Structure formats: C-alpha cells, structure tokens
Amino acid sequence: MPVIEHQQFIKVPVEVCFDLARNVDIHTQTTAKTKERAIGGVTKGLLEQGDTVTWEAIHFGIKQRLTAKVTVMEKPYKFVDIMVKGAFQSFVHTHQFIEAAGGTIMRDTFQYKSPLGLMGVAADKLFLEKYMRAFIISRAKELKKIAENID
User: Fold this and answer.
1) What does the alpha-carbon distance between residue 44 and residue 2 come to, in Å, rounded to a whole number?
2) What is the pTM of this model?
C-alpha cells in the first residue's frame, strides 16, 4: 500500500493554514489543473468532522467522481479524510499543521490502495504513485501561494 508524504512550509499562522486547507472553495482553486469541483455533500466553506464531499475531476483524461468523509478534526492541528466511494479501493489522507518559527509546516500523508489486485499494484509502480505524489505537491504549492498572498 503506497504512502505519500509531503511537507510544505507556509508563512502564515497555523490557524490560517488549517482553515485554508479544509476550505472547499480553496481546494477547488488549488486543483484547477484537474478541474476539480465539489458536486455533492458540503460544496462550499469549511469542512467539519463528519462532513462528506463528492468531488468531480478529470484525471488521466477521464471525468471521475470521489466521495470523501472527514473522520478526524483536531483544530487547528489535524484533520483526516477517507474515501467512501471512488476509483481507489481505499485511501486515508491525513493533514497535519505544525507551528514553526515564522509560519506553519503543513504535512500531508496520503495512504491508498489501488483496485484490481496485482494490476493495481503494477499501475502504482508504473505511474499512479508518481501521479498522486505530483498532485499532492502541486496542491500544497498552490495553497502556499494563496495563503501567503492573502491581504
């Protein structure tokens, strides 16, 4: 089961970073490359524990839908969302926010399991893990740009 970890330093207080990361509208902005948008559940504003959101996006040239549920909310330091319906067999995405001098370290840990048994394992090795790592890094960099340019 692949585990992707990424850390991004952001020059804003932990509370600001935390709220931006769980904001559905900001999520849409940070995933513009895949045309991601919320189409079900919570479609605007801040996600809270127990909330679900259904995302529609284009990955690998195919329109896909994925529903995630927020299962843990420890403001302003951590939240966890899990896939409840979608293309993966499963995933758990842990978002952590650590106070640091001059800002916040945002840490993403994305653990997933591909469908299709051995074919899924092969897809992970050939392209999927690299794709998901790039997606998570891109989203973190976009969130950093938004956070550090708030007036």
Assistant:
1) 30
2) 0.93
The edge-to-edge listing of strands for the beta sheet with 103-113 is: 3-10, 103-113, 90-100, 78-85, 62-74, 52-59, 37-41
CB 93 within 8 A of CB 80: yes
Give dist(CA 110, CA 61) in Å, integer: 22
- From the options 3.40.50.2000, 3.30.530.20, 3.40.30.10, 2.60.40.10, give the CATH code of 3-148: 3.30.530.20
Distance CA 110, CA 48 (A): 19
Span 76-126, pLDDT tens digits: 999 999 999 999 999 999 999 999 999 999 999 999 999 888 887 888 888
DSSP 61: T
Q: Rounded to whole angstroms, how far apart are CA atoms 44 and 27?
A: 10
β 90-100/78-85 pair status: antiparallel
**Structure tokens belonging to residue 141:** 């960099």
